[in-house]
Amino acid sequence: MTVSVTLPALGESVTEGTVTRWLKQVGDRVEADEPLLEVSTDKVDTEIPSPAAGVLLEILVAEDETVEVGAGLGVIGAAPVPASAAESAPTPPAPAPAPAPAPAPAPAPVPTPAPAPAPAPAEPFVPPAASAPPASPAPAPAPAPVPVQPAPTAPAAPADEASSLRGRTVAMTRIRRAIGNNLKKALLEQAQLTSTVEADVTRLMRLRSRAKDGFLAREGLKLSPMPFFVKAAAQALKAHPVVNARINEDEGTITYFDTENIGIAVDTEAGLMTPVVKAAGDLTVAGLARAVHDLADRARGGHLTPDDVSGATFTISNTGSRGALFDTVIVPPNQAAILGVGATVRRPGVVRVGDEEVIGVRDLVHLSLSYDHRLVDGADAARYLTAVKALLEAAAFEDDLYPDAAA
């Protein structure tokens, strides 16, 4: 009995995959659910497990070949029955052990030479009598000048090392091609534009500073600002579902989602990955911190599953983590909007103290919302951004940082 290995469905809108590497060869033994081969799609690279235990009898799709979902990849079956072995010839008797050789005679003792006589003691040295009066003592040397220490200078900024890509022409990776094709398709099919607001997150940064040590001790994770931005974005989506939507062009309808599945753009060595925090609107800041850390860690390690990158209804891109002030991010396909979070910088800002307005040092960040104008009007985008800004500036997240408040 044989079992076919087929390409399974690997996520929403994924219709094909490319075999990148077979982990087993024909004739190799494989256990059920043991990784059998690696497949790359336009969203993720993943391993395909063996559907049954047995031997890999046949490989139907070679490496670097692309096939549709459901196509056969290989065949698993029982190992072929080996031919009966010929009867073994009778074992010849073991040869009698050879007699042990006679021990060699001990060597004759070598006489020890007599010790050499000790050298005669040297004659003591007697200096000759002085025939001239002693010379006058030499003048004391002048003190050496004290070296002048140069004034300390600031260390020079380290220069970036030259990239190994300089002067080379390389083939585009599958992930690079997929990213480019998806984003080009999104720009061609959507009416995209971007709105931006500036939020004063001074209170939020102070809350994070107070909570980060206890959070690290309790959770084993550093408390970055990202979970707070995800929390505010998800909470505002509940009040503004027009931004959490998808247009169904074939049916001429719009779907407004009742859950907030937020994709998190992650920069990896292989390229941009966007794993999804499912039901982000139901998680606390602590729960979001754990989810974002887990997904980002697995994205950088190449361990995402198809389910990890499927089902996003909204996306957040934290370009500020690399120092960018703001960005005109591109809305992914099948979504209405994406939020870009810029770098948090300290600048002078106007602060109201009672009835007075004063200048103070504030933590400020740009929030950029790119959206599909077919679904979202400029006023809708502004209302959503204003809601996110208000939540971040209020920074009422204290209860979310306690483990008993986690969903």
TrEMBL record:
**SUPFAM superfamilies, A to Z:** CoA-dependent acyltransferases (SSF52777), Single hybrid motif (SSF51230)
Q: In which pathway does it act?
A: Amino-acid degradation; L-lysine degradation via saccharopine pathway; glutaryl-CoA from L-lysine: step 6/6
User: Which reaction does this enzyme catalyse, per its entry?
Assistant: N(6)-[(R)-dihydrolipoyl]-L-lysyl-[protein] + succinyl-CoA = N(6)-[(R)-S(8)-succinyldihydrolipoyl]-L-lysyl-[protein] + CoA
Which cofactors are required for activity?
A: (R)-lipoate
* Gene Ontology MF terms in the entry: dihydrolipoyllysine-residue succinyltransferase activity
Kindly report, in one word, the top-level EC class recorded for this enzyme.
transferase
Source domain of life: Bacteria
Pfam families registered for this protein in UniProt: 2-oxoacid_dh, Biotin_lipoyl
One GO CC term on file: cytosol
Q: Which residues form the Lipoyl-binding domain?
A: 2-77
Could you say which protein family the record assigns here? Belongs to the 2-oxoacid dehydrogenase family.
Q: What does this protein do?
A: E2 component of the 2-oxoglutarate dehydrogenase (OGDH) complex which catalyzes the second step in the conversion of 2-oxoglutarate to succinyl-CoA and CO(2).
Q: What is this protein called?
A: Dihydrolipoamide acetyltransferase component of pyruvate dehydrogenase complex
Q: Which organism is it from?
A: Streptomyces gancidicus BKS 13-15
Q: What is the lineage of its organism?
A: Bacteria, Bacillati, Actinomycetota, Actinomycetes, Kitasatosporales
